[in-house]
Specification:
Elements lengths: L2 H8 L1 H5 L6 H53 L4 H19 L5 H18 L13 H36 L2
Helix pairs in contact: 4-5, 4-6, 5-6
Length: 172
């Protein structure tokens, strides 16, 4: 016999006794209290999850809208590459202005990196795309490549703007 069977065999007389009066009512009350707590907890969790989903969706929509607004202009032009290169040169000019307070070595490094990104964009990546690819897919690949390079320059400009703001606030 296992231990459970042994326990039941030793205490068989206890199983024949009737429970105390009001035992089932007390048990029911405890079960109702737990279910109310569980219901309240589930309601709070579902409300919090709903709010989180709504806020996340809003933030994603807002972020996608910002990115698409600045990039969509080049997607609809005949020469995507030149459009992106023009935008990249504008950002490069902004970066050059933001590096004026840096020491010459750092300024040279940043501007070299910026120039390398622009040169990589203009280096003829479009010639490396297989000719067998449909025109729509090739255009999508090219626009993604150019957009990523532009976004890299934009990120450099944002970081330099933060550094520039810190520099100006420390020199006041």
């Amino acid at each position: 016999m296992n231990r459970l069977e042994q326990y039941i065999h030793d205490n068989i007389s206890l199983f024949d006794e009737e429970p105390e009066t009001d035992h089932f009512e007390r048990l029911q009350q405890k079960m109702n209290r737990k279910s109310r707590r569980t219901t309240a907890l589930r309601w709070y969790i579902s409300t919090a999850a709903s709010i989180t989903i709504i806020l996340s969706a809003g933030m994603m929509w807002q972020h996608a809208g910002k990115r698409n607004d600045s990039m969509v202009m080049c997607e609809n032009t005949m020469d995507i590459k030149n459009c992106y290169l023009n935008k990249m040169n504008v950002v490069a000019g902004r970066i050059e202005l933001l590096t004026k307070h840096l020491d010459p070595w750092d300024q040279h490094q940043v501007m070299t990196d910026v120039q390398n990104i622009i040169e990589a964009t203009g280096s003829g990546f479009e010639n490396e795309i297989p000719e067998e690819l449909p025109a729509g897919e090739a255009k999508l690949i090219l626009s993604d490549y150019y957009r990523q390079n532009l976004e890299s320059l934009v990120m450099i400009a944002k970081k330099l703007a933060i550094i520039n703001d810190e520099y100006q606030s420390n020199n006041k």
